[in-house]
Amino acid sequence: MTMEMWQLGFVAERVRVAALLVASLPLLTGLSHVAGFERTFGLVDDVLDAFAAFAVAVLAATVILGLIGVLAPGQPIAEIVAKIAVVSFPAAIGALLADKQLGGKEQPASDDQRAYGGRLFLMTIGALFVALNVAPTEEIILIGFQISPWQALALSIASLGVLHALLFWIDFPGVERRRGARGAWSILLRDSLPGYGLCVLASLALLWVFGRTDGVALSELAEFAVVLAFPASLGAGLAPVVVGPKRA
Q: Taking the domains of the chain in order of start, what are their residue ranges?
């Protein structure tokens, strides 16, 4: 229901929207491996799971955008497709996570068992999931213009602190085991710092997709990325918890 999100259907370049869709398939396939509709046994199952989630997302997006008048008869087909495509990626992530949280099935893999690369991947998905809903808004650009370089530095430190707290200090399931296995500095160096770097990279990618990088100075672009990386850090920190094991 955010105006900037579905307006991208006729504002954003088709090549950039297509790039977002192409990138979404491997990301959804990887997410399916850890949080799909059902336990999968190979790449083909994960790909089918990802397509199923995307189909659900497209259907939901079409119905809702039609109900609120965003899609209307007489609009060009290309515009309708682009509007649906832009909102379908975050909806597909939600579709994959919904069964994990609401299906009542026990998941065999814990955070301790999950590989290091898998944890970073989940943080990237969480960052994208949150940032996708914020990146198109004008507030990101406005905040980026009105903050000073020192405020941007302070915001980046705050974002890293929030991410680190979610990964280590907050009393979520699995945190006690991480505390016992590794100290705060180890978590900071191995998880929090790389995770924040992924948040910044994800923010830059989304800013490019939504045309926020065109004609922007490097210093301004850095501030935009820092601003968007703040909500992305929240998503990155919560992702291992959302996809982690349920409480018994």
A: 1-105, 112-248
